[in-house]
Design a protein that fits this description.
single chain; about 210 residues; mainly alpha; 2 domains; 11 helices; globular
């Protein structure tokens, strides 16, 4: 691509407005954060050869949440970047679940049967045979499940305390709490996209920290 062609592409991109450009940047930051968010936890389990203290039910709920959201976005034909974080999280979740089940001696017949069922459903979703209406219903269930957490977030958002919320997001990232991390980022984005001043404040906070 020539220099003029590249300059034209960049100019056309920035023509859509600084707000959307910053929103895209924050989306990329979210995806980048999800890239390795569970890797430290996986490495700790492998090094200690123990998954004691890790909730199997919690992992299964996370798997359900990531799978539903990724499947719904994929089946609805949304842009890949809009749900890429769920793909990255799912890959890490599979590895985390494997080692957790392995060191808790849960890789039995029941787990194998459930894995086969999961793969069959995933295949149906991939070929877009699985009914979208069911995925929509599951998304609603998932949203209701996280509603309590979102209400707690609204307390911070009402105060428009971006710095405090940014620190909370950093703690969630450090604790590898991917579900809460994504929900927190989405809540902040919702506030910032409706308030240009807060969006610029968040961008500066990210740069400073």
């Amino acid at each position: 691509m020539s220099t003029e062609g590249l300059s034209s592409v960049i100019a056309n991109y920035f023509d859509k407005g600084i707000i959307l450009v910053i929103a895209d940047l924050l989306s990329l930051i979210t995806v980048s954060s999800c890239l390795v968010i569970k890797v430290p936890q996986i490495n700790t389990i492998r090094e200690n050869k123990s998954s004691k203290g890790i909730s199997v039910n919690g992992l299964c709920l996370e798997l359900f949440s990531y799978t539903v959201m990724m499947s719904y976005n994929y089946s609805s034909g949304y842009e890949f970047l809009s749900y890429m974080e769920y793909v990255l999280l799912l890959i890490q979740e599979y590895v985390l679940i494997y080692y957790t089940f392995k060191y808790q001696n849960l890789l039995g017949q029941k787990t194998k049967i459930m894995t086969v069922v999961y793969i069959i459903i995933a295949t149906l979703i991939y070929f877009k045979i699985f009914p979208v209406i069911i995925l929509t219903f599951l998304v609603v269930i998932r949203q209701q499940h996280t509603q309590q957490n979102m209400q707690q977030q609204q307390g911070f958002l009402a105060q428009k305390d971006i710095l405090t919320w940014f620190r909370k997001i950093k703690c969630l990232d450090k604790d590898h709490d991917a579900t809460a991390f994504i929900a927190s980022v989405e809540a902040v984005m919702e506030l910032c996209l409706s308030d240009n001043h807060q969006l610029m404040k968040l961008a500066m906070t990210i740069i400073i920290n």
